[in-house]
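**Backbone description:**
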Amino acid sequence: MNTSSDLTLWMTEFLRSTDQHKKLLIQEARSLADAVLLDSIRFHLALRDKLHLLQTSGNEPYSSIHNAQAS
């Protein structure tokens, strides 16, 4: 990526895309060999995985936090 705005636009597309399209974008990022971009992808995928665990665990404390944040 040439600029931080390019990275921001790329990551916005990545985050909004389907999982199938994410796989294609990851291949593109690997072909660019852009370490910053790959680190950003890893970071966001890790967040998504952790959020998924919170949402599917059925923990009441998470529900309370989520409801409080939604207010």
